[in-house]
Amino acid sequence: MNHEIVLQLMYAYFYFMLYAFGGWVVQGFYVGFKQHKFLNTGFYHGPYVPIFGVGCLLIIYVIDPLSMNPIWVFINTFVITSVLEYITSWYLQKKYHRLWWDYSEKPFNIHGRVCLLNSTLYGIAGIAVTFFAQPWIHDLVLKIPFAWLLGIEAVYSVVFWSDVIITTMEMHAHVHALEDLHKYIQNAIKAENEKIRTEYLDKAKQSFERMEQTKRHLRGFISQKLDEGYQHSIHTLLNPKKKPSSNAHSAK
After folding, report:
1. What are 91-97's contacts with CB under 8 Å, separation 24+?
2. Are 210 and 230 within 8 A, CB to CB?
3. How buried is 9 (Cβ within 10 angstroms: 0-12 exposed, 13-18 middle, 19+ buried)?
């Protein structure tokens, strides 16, 4: 691999860093606008939202080469980022039993994963990145000495990828606790013996406590929605006035 290719890859990685941070800032102000304050919507411990970094790389290296016409930049960004958002939402829900952002109440949405308003804003963001942000950032990056660029990216990589590993472990612990809670509630529903039912409910409470201890990564997802079966199990646990119904939903 020659020096020029390595340099271009380093530039792309630096763009990812900047846009992931910029996305974190913009999203924090956008989500907190109605409350007149900045909201930390970060999924990770650090100040970055990687999906925005990836989205901007798609704009720079896929969308812009297709056409630099502003109309086509808008349309291509609208389509490609919407597909990225939909796939990401689908994957996260399958893996973690949760719709991480829910646009069901917004008009012209598709399964609550994407909606016309957000996709339009992404299209506008594509124009802003292509014609305003990226030319300035490109010139800025070219002025950074290679050694400095290498050092900054090395430090960032240690911090970012450590964060990814730690957050992934937290998420896995959270979803395992959720799955255990659901299993114990379902067993309690089926139990004929009151003592056994109580034991299952106690285990479900312990699982719920583990969920609460590992829910930090959920802080930024204000409109998220848990899958129905798991939501019903939590509702059953937190509202124990009635004996759990045998008609309770089971998770799919």
Report:
1. 93/227, 95/175, 96/171, 96/174, 96/175, 97/175, 97/178, 97/179, 97/226, 97/227, 97/230, 97/251
2. no
3. exposed
pTM metric for this prediction: 0.85
**pLDDT string in tens for the chain (252-residue length):** 688 899 999 999 999 999 999 999 998 898 888 788 888 877 899 999 999 999 999 999 999 999 999 999 999 999 999 999 999 999 989 988 888 888 999 999 999 999 999 999 999 999 999 999 999 999 999 999 999 999 999 999 999 999 999 999 999 999 999 999 999 999 998 988 899 999 999 999 999 999 888 887 676 555 677 888 888 888 888 886 655 554 445 554
